[in-house]
Design a protein that fits this description.
- The chain is of the alpha/beta class and 316 residues long.
- It folds into two domains: 163 residues, Bordetella uptake gene, domain 1 (D-Maltodextrin-Binding Protein, domain 2); 97 residues, D-Maltodextrin-Binding Protein, domain 2 (3-Layer(aba) Sandwich).
- Helix content is 44%, strand content 21%.
- It has eleven helices and ten strands.
- Strands 1, 2, 3, 4, 5, 6, 7, 8, 9 and 10 form a ten-stranded mixed beta sheet that branches.
- Helix 6 links the parallel strand 5 and strand 6.
- Helix 4 packs across helix 11.
Length: 316
């Protein structure tokens, strides 16, 4: 009886090991909650070859756009929690959307099990190359003379892009119109197609589009090395330093071991000198915030964004 019991336990353990190993070697699905062509998509695709080289596995990128990312984040916890599915996340989106929209956001910040942030991009104001506006002041003069007629394309609502326009409206005392799209890719196409006057986007748009666009101001602390001639908002008299952090999350039911494993994997890619160079060449700022730092980091970000929300009148 004892031998039979041991044999049964052995095969039970072997079965669990087989399931675990097959799950580890299965193709991973990376859900990007925006349309193709934006920063989340571009960096996810940059990671694919490095992931393949390191782990000999593939990551398949899928899209689930809508609600400025909210459609995807609202569905995150219904996905598999075995590590075979990860989802892109953005700050301040996952904090600001629940603050501004309440239950209509479809999720709460605490619902999002973020395990890493791996890059940051500063906000920026851009115009199409043939635009008559060569400086931010010229653009804002147009806004002052034509309230509501200065239209900005951007990625999502209550996103970094949207908050930039709200902040600029208040600090410059202008009224502009923000037009949200399902991702940076679509927002840029609207700019290039002259469907809008300007775009509230990111510095990376200027790097990707080159001579097709002109960046008028960047919301970084200092001028970017890749764009030394572009002034910061602070230089121009507007105290605006903002942008978006991007990373990944797992369903809340994922085990601690799965969270740690995925955090380690993303941070290992981030440490590759070739990956760092590729990111920096495309105007991305590499950051290394893994699962160990996440609780403290998110607590700080929630506090900071609640303060911004109060300043912008989104909450009392």
């Amino acid at each position: 009886m004892k031998l039979k019991s041991y044999i049964s336990k052995f095969f039970a353990v072997l079965s669990l090991m087989t399931i675990s190993l097959s799950a580890a070697n299965a193709v991973v699905t990376n859900i990007i909650p925006f349309g193709p062509g934006g920063e989340s998509d571009v960096t996810a695709r940059m990671q694919q070859s490095y992931y393949k080289n390191i782990y000999n596995d593939d990551i398949v990128v899928q899209y689930k756009p809508g609600g400025g990312g909210g459609v995807g984040w609202a569905s995150l916890n219904s996905e598999k929690d075995d590590g075979s599915v990860i989802m892109g996340v953005n700050l301040p989106h996952i904090i600001m959307q629940p603050i501004a929209k309440g239950d209509a956001a479809g999720y709460k910040t605490d619902d999002i099990n973020v395990f890493s942030f791996f890059h940051y991009t500063p906000d920026a104001i851009l115009v199409e190359a043939s635009s008559p506006y060569n400086t931010l002041e010229e653009l804002l003069d147009f806004a002052k003379k034509n309230p509501g007629n200065l239209t900005f394309s951007g990625s999502g609502t209550y996103s970094a892009n949207h908050l930039l326009t709200i902040s600029l409206n208040q600090k410059a005392k202008v009224t502009t119109t923000y037009v949200p799209f399902k991702g940076t890719g679509a927002a840029v196409q609207a700019l290039l197609g002259k469907q809008v006057v300007a775009s509230a986007g990111y510095s990376t748009v200027a790097a990707a589009q080159g001579s097709k666009v002109r960046m008028l101001a960047v919301a970084s602390e200092e001028r970017l090395p890749a764009f030394p001639d572009v002034p910061t908002f602070k230089e121009l008299g507007y105290k605006i330093v903002s942008g978006a952090y991007r990373g990944y999350a797992l369903p809340k039911s994922a085990s601690k071991a799965t969270v740690k494993e995925w955090s380690d994997r993303i941070m290992k890619i981030n440490a590759d000198p070739a990956f760092i160079k590729q990111m920096e060449d495309n105007a991305f700022v590499v950051v290394n915030i893994g699962h160990k730092e996440m609780k403290k980091f998110m607590k700080e970000q929630i506090k900071e964004n609640e303060k911004i929300a109060k300043e912008l009148g989104l909450i009392k």
